[in-house]
Specification:
The protein is an alpha/beta fold. It folds into 2 domains: 3-170, Peroxisomal Thiolase, Chain A, domain 1 (3-Layer(aba) Sandwich), CATH 3.40.47.10; 178-323, Peroxisomal Thiolase, Chain A, domain 1 (3-Layer(aba) Sandwich). The chain is 31% helix and 24% strand. Strand 12 and strand 13 form a beta hairpin. Helix 3 (52-67) packs across helix 4 (91-99) and helix 6 (216-238) packs parallel to helix 7 (255-264). The chain binds acetyl coenzyme *A (ACO). Acetyl coenzyme *A (ACO) is lined by residues 29, 33-34, 37-38, 112-113, 152-153, 156, 193, 214, 216-217, 219-220, 223, 253-254, 257, 281, 283, 312-313.
Length: 324
């Protein structure tokens, strides 16, 4: 079997910033409350003329440049998103055309905040089986369009952006790449984090708002539990030790969730990558953005062992153990 290596990484953030003091003007809250309870000081959000495919396109371009590849080298394109530009067509097709890829397979994958790691697992299978040489996976979301800026329990968290990996086939004995991946779901909790309106059950304009509704306290506890369990599952499955992990990169939902996952795993905080303070929670984009940020600032080096874990509405959760 071939190996699936992370050949390129890139990300893109919209320029517009939404600060805590601006949120103080919208709902009854304070900068101090938001920073203490979430670790977020500001978030990046889309301009009126920007949407998910724009962020996905820029992140994909950055990952291709990092991989030293052309769009025509890509054999399959997957965009993980819960906030497509349109319900139809897939964002992946818009990105395929804009990049100038061949007429390759291109589809969206919807697994909320665990979408990017689900896409990584799909890419891993295609590449390890020898079906494709290069798979481009993108996590891109524009949560600001589905955020209720009258709900102080959610509008403090959500943000926009995109991140991407090029996952490539290798038979070099020196490479390790993706070691193991895992994904899970439990749909019984769907109503604890969902968008009631805008889908086929309650179409747009028929009462329910197309805005995120969340039971934050419940999701908080579930998130900590499933991300810590996922990391332990991957260690058990691969026979690796916690001490071998160079970087723990959890979904960036809330700094207190990130801290609690590290604490639950008894993992040193200085080896945890967090980008939430100035970016916020941009769903399927948080993990590739955090990986890209830590590569660019010199923390993550080639050969480092990365533990990636995510959870999101659904519920869905998953993880990946990867040698970068
Ligand atoms: N400002 C001030 N007070 C607030 C705010 C706010 N922005 N939001 C809630 N409060 C109040 C509540 O009303 C409550 O008041 P009460 O005690 O008088 O009832 C009090 O603060 C405590 O509320 P909690 O909900 O218990 O606050 P908590 O510490 O849990 O923080 C938060 C809320 C930040 C939402 C947290 O629960 C959280 O981050 N949950 C998980 C979110 C998450 O990970 N979501 C998944 C997203 S991933 C995806 O799929 C998009």
């Amino acid at each position: 079997m071939y190996k699936a290596v992370i050949r390129g990484v890139g990300s893109y953030l919209p320029e517009t910033r939404l600060t805590n003091s601006e949120i103080e003007q919208m709902v009854e809250t304070s900068d101090e409350w938001i920073q203490t309870r979430t670790g977020i000081a500001e978030r990046r959000i889309a301009r009126v003329d920007e949407a998910t495919s724009d962020f996905a396109y820029h992140a994909a371009q950055a990952a291709l440049a990092d991989a030293g590849l052309e769009p025509t080298d890509i054999d399959l394109l997957i965009v993980a998103t819960e906030t497509p530009d349109y319900l139809l067509p897939p964002v992946a097709c818009q990105v395929q055309a804009r990049l100038g890829c061949r007429n390759i397979g291109a589809f969206d994958l919807h697994a909320t905040c665990a979408g990017f790691l689900s896409a990584l697992q799909v890419a891993e299978q295609y590449v390890k089986a020898g079906v494709h040489q290069h798979v481009l996976i993108v996590g891109a979301d524009t949560l600001s369009r589905f955020t209720d800026y009258e709900d102080r329990g959610t509008c403090i968290l959500f943000a926009d952006g995109a991140g991407a990996f090029v996952v490539s086939r290798s038979d070099d004995p020196a490479d390790t790449g993706v070691i193991a991946t895992t994904i899970h779901s439990d749909g019984t909790y769907f109503h604890n984090l969902y968008i009631p309106g805008g889908g086929s059950r309650t179409p747009y304009g028929q009462g329910a708002k197309a805005k995120i509704v969340m039971d934050g306290r419940k999701i908080f506890k579930l998130a900590v539990n499933v991300m810590a369990t996922t990391a332990e599952e991957l260690l058990a499955k691969t026979g690796r030790q916690k001490g071998e992990i160079d970087w723990l990169i959890p979904h960036q939902a809330n700094q207190r969730i990130i801290d609690a996952v590290a604490e639950s795993l008894d993992f040193p905080q200085e080896k945890v990558v967090s980008t939430i303070q100035n970016i916020g929670n941009n769903s399927s984009a948080t993990i590739p953005i955090a990986v890209d940020t830590a590569i660019r600032d010199g923390r993550i080096q080639r050969g480092d062992l990365l533990m990636l874990v995510a959870f999101g509405g659904g519920l869905v959760w998953g993880g990946a153990l990867v040698q970068y």
